C-alpha cells in the first residue's frame, strides 16, 4: 500500500487560489469544503500572520487576514515583493503564489 503524506490545507479545500489585488498586493483565498475544514483554516493557533510571513517572506505586520465563517472562506492579502509588471516580476497575475499555502500540513488530531 502506498504511503500518503500529511493532510494539507489544499486537501481540505474546494479551492486555494491566489491573484493579484492591484499592482502592489497579492490576495489568497481558501475555499474550505465544510465547517470542519474551515475550523482548521481559521484557527489562529495554526494559520496566522506569523505563518503567512514565514511562508512568503513578508512582514508579519503587513498581512491582512479575513475569516468569513458564513462562507467557509479565509482570505489573506499582503504586499507583492515587487510591483506587478516590473522588470523583476516573475508572476504577473500572482496565479502561482497559492502553492505554499495549499501545501501547508494541517495539525493532526
UniProtKB/TrEMBL annotation:
Residue ranges occupied by any DUF4387 domain in the UniProt entry: 9-102
Pfam families on file: DUF4387
Protein name per its UniProtKB record: DUF4387 domain-containing protein
Species the sequence originates in: Streptomyces apricus
Amino acid at each position: 500500500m502506498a504511503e500518503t503524506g500529511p493532510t494539507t490545507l489544499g486537501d481540505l479545500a474546494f479551492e486555494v487560489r491566489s491573484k493579484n489585488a492591484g499592482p502592489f498586493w497579492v490576495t489568497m483565498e481558501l475555499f474550505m469544503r465544510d465547517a470542519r475544514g474551515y475550523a482548521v483554516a481559521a484557527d489562529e493557533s495554526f494559520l496566522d500572520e506569523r505563518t503567512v510571513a514565514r511562508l512568503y517572506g513578508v512582514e508579519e505586520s503587513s498581512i491582512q487576514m479575513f475569516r468569513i465563517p458564513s462562507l467557509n472562506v479565509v482570505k489573506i492579502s499582503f504586499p507583492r515583493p515587487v510591483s506587478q509588471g516590473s522588470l523583476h516580476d516573475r508572476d504577473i497575475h500572482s496565479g502561482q503564489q497559492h502553492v505554499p499555502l495549499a501545501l501547508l500540513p494541517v495539525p493532526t488530531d
